[in-house]
Structure formats: structure tokens, C-alpha cells
Amino acid sequence: MFIGITGRYAAGKDTVAKLLEEQGYIHISLSDLIREQMRFEGIELTRDNIIATGDRLRREEGFAVLAKRAISKIEDGKKYVFSSIRNPAEVEMLRTLPGFKFVNVIAPIKSRLARLQSRNREQDPFTLEDLQTKEGLETTNDPSRNQLHKVEKMADVVIENAKGIEELKEKVLRL
Predict the structure, then answer these.
(1) How many domains does the chain have?
(2) What share of the chain is helix, strand, coil (3-state, %, to 5)?
(3) Pick from 75, 85, 51: which is nearest to 156 by CA?
(4) What is the pLDDT of residues 43-63, one digit of tens each?
(5) Percent of the chain at pLDDT above 90?
(6) What digits encode the pLDDT tens for the residues 90-100?
(7) Cα dihedral across residues 106, 83, 103, 146: positive or negative
(8) How far is CA 164 from CA 83, 167, 168, in A?
(9) What is the domain range of residue 12?
(10) DSSP code at position 7
(11) Is 175 a domain residue?
């Protein structure tokens, strides 16, 4: 079984991935694959650099490069959850896996902003305006860049994460 996860900032993507890990899934984050490349190249690990490196890799190696790298890590007979999917070519590549299910995790913007403020990470947006600006960077029409607005529409399942962990867990268990 293969599940892919997308969603906006602080929608709960990592939480969904962790819940699936508790069910025996192995988690592969496409952003972690970018971070691996950045460490190899000696690039500072910032959110902006992660986006720029992902864009560069797509231009140099094809729009589905991150999905291809993720698929190369698969071992037979195991279940996988893929997160940080932000480009339509990545979804299309992952759809070649048997039984692949693609999930968009959503939450109201005010809830997401509150989560960002409470986790207090240096790179996270802290105001509504900052959040909207950052999300705008992930919604371009350039096929080599993040196209979250297009990827969200490709979801097989939408999970709303607005009422707490127990309700979210119930929804994840139904996948």
C-alpha cells in the first residue's frame, strides 16, 4: 500500500504521516530528499533554500525527480507514506505505484497560523500576511516549481484536520 500526502503549511501532513507510521508505514518525505541533496552540496538548510533546490533539481533532472528518488528507496512487501508532494509530476510518478492513494490534508488558515505560531520555528511565517506570501511561493504555474494549488486538486481523498487529533486519527485509519 502506498499513500501520498500533500497540504498547506501546518495543515497536519506530518501528523498524518506519523499516524500512518504507527500503522506500520515507512515515511519518505520528498523534502527530506531535498535536504539530503543540500547537505551533500553544502547548502544551508533554510525553507527558501529547500524550495530553490527542489526547483533546481526539477529543472535539471525532470519534474518528477523527487518522486523517482523516493520510489528508488522502496523495498518489496512494505507499506509507504510519501509526504511533501508539491508538484503534479511527482503525483503522476507516484500514481504508477500499485494501489497508490493521494491525500490532501486541509485545515482553516487561522488554525494553521495558530499552529505555526505555537511551534515557533524560526523559518515559519508568523503573521497571516507572511503565511499568505509564503504559500504564494508554492502556487506557481512554472512546472519546475512547487504547484501546490494544482497538486491539491489531484487528491483522491481530502482529510479536514480542524477538530483535534482523535478525529484526525479516525479519518486516517479509514484510508
Answers:
(1) 1
(2) 50, 15, 35
(3) 85
(4) 999 888 998 999 999 999 999
(5) 75
(6) 999 999 999 99
(7) positive
(8) 20, 6, 6
(9) 2-164
(10) E
(11) no
